[in-house]
């Protein structure tokens, strides 16, 4: 029955004046599924120009976190990672970072491929009042549309202006791939 249907479809295409190869739906490649936390590994980019300038206090700087597809298949990522900073001081607590207004692209991550996203940071001087600074210790990073996170140790030192209750803080995350 399946062969008759293929022959009839092929005949209809030839009659219409166009020859084409007919591929049964079962043979068509499946679109990649979204990346799950178990498909990925994550870390901070630490090489050369990827390091944030935590020693300066006049402007914002950026840190980069990467995701690498460690699975044996391609998968897609789109959107923003969830990022919670855990502070080193007892008064810091956990700060869930807000998202930028940038539009995220949808990306297909092939096996072994890496993509990153940036965190815009607003560093402060050591002389800033203790209650106004946040000292990062760990970052809890959750891939888009997932509930399981990676725990990454903050490798750069420095302090960030504490704006965890601000509507438009100077520290925020950008979408994956931008």
UniProtKB/TrEMBL annotation:
Keywords: Signal
Domain named DUF4232: residues: 35-155
Signal peptide residues on this chain, from the entry's feature table: 1-27
Protein name (record): DUF4232 domain-containing protein
